[in-house]
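[[Per-residue structure]]
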Amino acid sequence: MHRERVSENVFWFQSEVYAQVTAGVIVGPQWAVVIDTLALPEETLTMREFIEHELGVQARYIINTHYHADHCWGNCFFPNAIVIGHARCRQYLVEDGIPSLEAAQKQNPSLRQVKIVPPHLTFESGEMTLRVGKKNLIISTTPGHSDDGISVLVEEDRVLFAGDAFMPLPYIVDGDADDMLSSVKRIGKMGLENIIQGHGDIILRGEIDAAVRENVNYLNNIKKAVKAGGKRKNAEEYLEEIAIEDCGKSRVYLGGLAETLHRRNLRALHRQMHGE
């Protein structure tokens, strides 16, 4: 697993196993806040080892940016932590998380030690703040990838843990393209030093404007392309002809996973627009 110090007492982790998914840690003098907990036990436990043995503190809080497995299935490995998330994150994990995990456990024995731990502390709108050491964390809603999406701003450092509201390729299969557009645009106006994407590499200050434009253009382009398809009888064939490069993105993003995600975006957007 990759690890990097982003700023003083702020760390970033990136999976080498699953879709370049990321997590973060903000460290205070006595305890730490963990942002997302990854999906695979071996990587979550590596992160916990770093926090407890190299940084010398325990995780007091976990913030889940949304309910998807790759961001919260590691919650159970921090048994004394209070989990914070959107109210719908808790709802989805309670309703859907357990059956999803049980199905995954049948396929992957390493997941047998995982248990679903939904947020203990939730909010639905506005902002929540949390102080850790000298850092003020501002937690706010950023829907689009999913309707329970939240982001965490380290206010003093202008570092945003964006969750999947910001990715190398916006992914809206479980969300809404218009909500995603609004979230991406708002992120672009926050005056940030770094964006920690939910998947992929850290975006540096000089790269942020271009990354925001690219994501906005991609979302507008797929909306325009799918709308032009209307209710064609050959909708599947039409969607297959919409190349990711024509929409302003590269298929090599996320280790080549971007092409698959693009295809899923098109099909989901077509269903949303045309009810098919």
Summary: Residues 205-229 form the longest helix (25 residues). The radius of gyration is 19 Å. The chain has a mean pLDDT of 96.
